[in-house]
Design goal:
The structure is a single chain. The chain is of the alpha/beta class. It is built from 34 helices and 21 strands. It has an eight-stranded mixed beta barrel with strand order 13-14-16-17-18-19-20-21, surrounded by seven helices. Strands 2-1-5-4-3 form a five-stranded antiparallel β-sheet, with helices on both faces. Strands 7-8-6-11-12 form a five-stranded mixed β-sheet, sandwiched between helices. The longest helix has 45 residues. It holds the Pfam family EAL. It comes from Streptomyces bambusae. This is EAL domain-containing protein. Keywords: Membrane, Transmembrane, Transmembrane helix. InterPro entries: Biofilm_reg_signaling, EAL_dom, EAL_sf, GGDEF_dom, Nucleotide_cyclase, PAS, PAS-like_dom_sf, PAS_4.
């Protein structure tokens, strides 16, 4: 057998927990040996010999009785009556020896014949015989009971024949002589051997028919009773009985028998704890019995018949044959014939039943689609079912005789050996079977994935095997699908995170060279919107291919979702951080250049850029922190102009934390009602009449400071548009210009709660003012992204106006265009619907926003609002003067009203009026006013219009005179340091 095959089925050495039992057995042997030595030497005196021969045997009997009785009380199994009967039997023997001691030791006279001791000894055998019957394995059929009785008579009759021939005939003749007292004496002489013969018969029968439940106890009890019967047989011998005296060597047999019976139940309890059958090893691992041992029960009747024949031959030799011998011999022969006939019929029935079961199980095995194999303890295959041809592609005859280890893949053999050894060492009751998966060699040389259920079988194994190759392949496909992106087949976020974790776990201390790159495609949403999502998918597949081809072998490229990709760049173990940063930056720049090259999609070229953030694995960093750092660096790259590479710096995280804190304060302020609504009048430059009011939001902090839109909206913009948001929208993340935009300024599209509050509050207050007699339209600034947001239903503005009872013409929406990817078709439809409702539309920030000419050409605009940047230098700069004048002529030619934002000086009022600008708002007239001051201004309805000197109306009055007029500033409260 090969070495792997030996290792496969070799059992680990069984543990032996019988240390205490060996000590108990050694003590038992020493006590019995000491008694035998004392008896052989005569105990040193006649008196001591009598005491030890009588009361010593009495003490041993009492000990056996107490031991068996105590065990019967603590053990509630079906064997309890047997141990109670053994206790009574031992007590009777102890009583008989006590009577002998009373006469010989106490009274100093011979024991009379017969005496009470004889009756006590006669009561020893019957309880022991009944107890042995209780311990016997009960037959399950009537024929079994008959065979048990016949076996008992065969043994008993044979022993009776032999005993009668040797000694009992002489005792019978003595009783027939008519001498006084001879009949009772002869009856006792016959009773002893007859009961011993019955007891020996039961001992021999039980030796081969003992119950498998507790063999150790039965074996020990049989040995004890056999030793007692042997001593009785020697005592009844005429030669020994004539010269017997108490304390002789013969008493050592009775003494040892009593001690063995006392030890039997407790030795049985110890062995029962070691195995189900009292052995030190599990049933499935017990060595196979030798054939001769299994044949002894069948040979017992014939051995008994041989003993009977010897008795008959002894009588025939030159003497007259005794009738008792003839009668007993005939009954023995008759019992043997009857038993043989019963066994013959029983064998015929068993043979037929066995043939039926064999055919049944053979058909099951041969018809099964699973392969059933039986491996010998040496690892050799003894049997292989015919299903092997269909499963393994090899004939069953070809596999029989081969080594099981030769069929298993070398990479799986060690694991299989370990599992088999563990299984064989486990108790069968706790683990009857086990399951093993490994690869088997097929007839074509391929390795099949096989699942086997393994059972024990005569020291070897039974393997029920099936081909699970397709299931393993399906599991592998499912595992691959769960860990890879379905579009690009790159690792997904889960697998990428696990590989980052593995890379960090395998890093040496101080190794900073492992890096993570986060990649975002700039302009990808425009591709989806312009040429369709299918083209966008083709672009993502091509980008994934480029990324996979650009990373090194061993590195990992992944798609995290949308147009976000990532790359894990494994380190080389170097400690030079600057050199490693230079190397990784080169890799990142190469990836950026590769991903930014034109893509051939649908027969045309498409261009996108790549913003890449890089983070290095510092000591003690976690995978989530490393990926977050790379994400922050990528966000900084997009905020810095896109199409660039940015390395992570600790201040990035600090900035994010600060913005998150401020954004949290902002959300809390909105929830706690800390926002206030101010309005800045829009004045006719020719008459000074207030024609509208522009709603603006302010946040009043806990310190009483009012934060302007340019301040708190910038915080909201950066907090909502950070790394965790959807960057596919491509919204501009640059800070809003320093101006006083309407409440829906740049970035408010990501602060829907603020925009919604702003619109509802402005409409509600406008309705209140209207009811108070101030019928002035209100202007609310809103970004195009917010206007097109699907979360804002098309009828929400109409519902709001209806709820508050405000006419639609009293609402002016100032549209801010800050995203070049805003779909003009959708925006045009949305504005047209609002215009049809009666809402007026103003194009805010004209002169600085995106696609101003396209907006004028396509969108339904009523009012053109000049950007603050065009107003601030209109007096000083002749070039800017011409640009502003040209824009105003365009508005006039299109029939639009014009509003100049940021009119702070009288010179600007006169210059704009001369250019044809009709309206303006700014500090030249009034700053933002609270509701009380606004109603006072509306009550006057006009502001002084500068004609020559620069004298702005209500200068600074809007905020209690605290705002001085400064050139080039919106004079708003600065943001306090955070």
């Amino acid at each position: 057998m090969s070495a792997p095959g030996t290792a496969l089925l070799s059992r680990p050495p069984a543990t032996d927990g019988s240390g205490r039992s060996l000590v108990a057995q050694l003590v038992l042997a020493l006590v019995c040996g000491g008694y035998a030595v004392g008896a052989a030497l005569g105990w040193g005196s006649q008196t001591l010999a009598l005491v030890m021969g009588d009361f010593g045997l009495c003490a041993a009997g009492v000990l056996a009785a107490v031991s068996c009785y105590h065990y019967a009380r603590t053990n509630r199994s079906r064997e309890r009556p047997a141990w109670l009967l053994f206790a009574f039997s031992s007590l009777m023997g102890a009583c008989g020896n006590a009577v002998w001691g009373w006469y010989e030791v106490v009274l100093g006279q011979d024991v009379p014949q017969p005496s009470a001791a004889d009756f006590a000894f006669l009561c020893f055998a019957p309880p022991a015989i009944v107890g042995l019957l209780v311990l016997a394995k009960r037959p399950v059929t009537r024929a079994g009971w008959v065979c048990l009785a016949l076996d008992s008579w065969l043994i008993g009759g044979s022993l009776l024949t032999l005993s009668w021939s040797l000694a009992l005939a002489h005792a019978t003749q003595t009783a027939q002589s008519g001498a006084p007292g001879s009949v009772p004496h002869a009856a006792l002489s016959l009773a002893y051997p007859l009961l011993d013969i019955a007891l020996v018969s039961m001992v021999l029968v039980l030796h081969f028919r003992r119950s498998p439940g507790n063999r150790s106890a039965v074996n020990t009890a049989i040995a004890a009773l056999a030793l007692t019967v042997l001593s009785d047989a020697l005592f009844t011998s005429p030669l020994l009985r004539a010269n017997y005296e108490s304390g002789q060597l013969l008493d050592a047999g009775w003494f040892a028998g009593s001690l063995l019976l006392a030890y039997a139940p407790w030795g049985a309890r110890r062995f029962a704890s070691q195995g189900p059958e009292g052995s030190g090893q599990p049933r499935g691992q017990r060595p196979v019995s030798r054939p001769i041992t299994g044949s002894l029960p069948a040979l017992t009747p014939y051995l008994a018949a041989a003993v009977c024949t010897l008795g008959i031959l002894y009588n025939v030799d030159g003497r007259k044959v005794d009738r008792m011998v003839v009668l007993t011999g005939c009954t023995v022969v008759l019992a043997l014939v009857v038993r043989q006939g019963i066994m013959l019929l029983d064998n015929i029935a068993l043979t037929q039943e066995l043939a039926q079961k064999e055919n049944h199980f053979r058909s099951l095995v041969q018809g099964s689609s699973d392969v059933i194999m039986i491996a010998a303890p040496t690892g050799t295959l003894r049997y292989v079912s015919p299903a092997a041809a269909g499963v393994y592609g090899r004939d069953a005859e070809e596999l029989v005789g081969s080594q099981l280890s030769d069929l298993i893949h070398p990479d799986d053999l060690g694991r299989v050996v370990h599992e088999v050894r563990r299984f064989l060492a486990a108790p069968p009751a706790e683990e009857p079977t086990t399951r093993i998966e490994c690869r088997f060699k097929s007839g074509s040389g391929e390795w099949l994935n096989v699942e086997s259920t393994v059972n024990r079988h005569q020291g070897g194994l039974i393997l029920n095997s099936r081909d699970v190759t397709e299931r393993v392949r399906l599991q592998a496909q499912l595992q691959h699908s769960a860990e890879h992106d379905p579009l690009t087949d790159l690792p997904n976020r889960a697998l990428f995170t696990r590989r980052v974790r593995q890379a960090l776990a395998g890093r040496r201390a101080g190794d900073h060279s492992t890096a993570v790159l986060f990649i975002d495609l700039d302009g990808f949403k425009a591709v989806n919107d312009s040429i369709g999502h299918q083209a966008g998918d083709e672009l993502l597949v091509e980008a994934a291919r480029r990324l996979q081809d650009s990373v090194r072998a061993g590195d990992t490229a992944a798609r995290l979702g949308g147009d976000e990709f990532a790359a894990l760049i494994l380190g080389d173990g170097g400690r030079d951080r600057s050199a490693r940063e230079y190397q990784v930056r080169e890799i990142a720049e190469r990836l950026r250049a590769t991903l930014s090259q034109p893509y051939r999609i649908g027969g045309g070229e498409v261009r996108v850029a790549a913003s890449i953030g890089v983070a290095f694995a510092d000591p003690g960093i976690t995978p989530s922190d490393l990926m977050r750092n790379a994400d922050l660096a990528m966000y900084r790259a997009k905020a810095g102009g896109k199409d660039r590479v940015e390395l992570y710096a600790p201040q990035m995280q600090a900035e994010v934390v600060r913005k998150a804190e401020v954004a949290g304060r902002l959300r809390s302020a909105l929830h706690d009602g800390e926002f206030a609504l101010l309005h800045q009048p829009v004045v006719c430059l020719s008459t000074g009449e207030i024609t509208a009011v522009a709603a603006q939001a302010r946040w009043r902090s806990a310190q009483g400071i009012l934060f302007t839109p340019a301040e708190f909206l910038r915080v909201a913009e950066h907090s909502e548009g950070g790394p965790a948001s959807d960057r596919v929208t491509g919204a501009d993340r640059s800070p809003a210009p320093d101006r006083s935009p309407g409440p829906a300024g740049a970035g408010v599209d990501r602060t829907g709660d603020i925009g919604r509050w702003l619109l509802e509050e402005a409409v509600e207050q406008a309705a209140d003012r209207r009811h108070a007699g101030h019928d002035v339209p209100v202007a609310v600034r809103m970004t195009a992204q917010r206007l097109l947001d699907k979360a804002v239903p098309p009828g929400s503005v109409e519902a709001l106006l209806t709820r508050h009872g405000l006419p639609s013409g009293a609402l002016l929406l100032e549209l801010a265009l800050c995203d070049p990817r805003v779909p003009f078709d959708d925006l045009e439809r949305r504005l047209t619907a609002l215009r049809r409702l009666g809402v007026r539309i103003a194009l805010d920030g004209f002169g600085s926003g995106y696609a101003a000419i396209s907006a004028l050409r396509r969108l339904p605009v009523d009012v053109l609002k000049l950007d603050r940047g065009l107003v601030e230098g209109v007096v000083e700069s002749a070039r800017l003067h011409k640009i502003t004048a040209g824009l105003l002529r365009i508005a006039n030619d299109l029939g639009m009203q014009s509003v100049a934002d940021g009119v702070d000086l009288p010179e600007q009022v006169m210059a704009l009026r001369a250019m044809g600008c009709s309206h303006g708002q700014g500090q030249a007239f009034s700053g933002p006013l609270d509701e009380y001051r606004l109603r006072r201004a509306l009550a006057r309805s006009t502001f002084p219009v500068p004609g020559g000197a620069a004298q702005p109306a209500l200068a600074g009055g809007s905020l209690g005179g605290s705002m001085a007029i400064r050139r080039g500033s919106n004079n708003e409260t600065p943001v306090p340091p955070t």
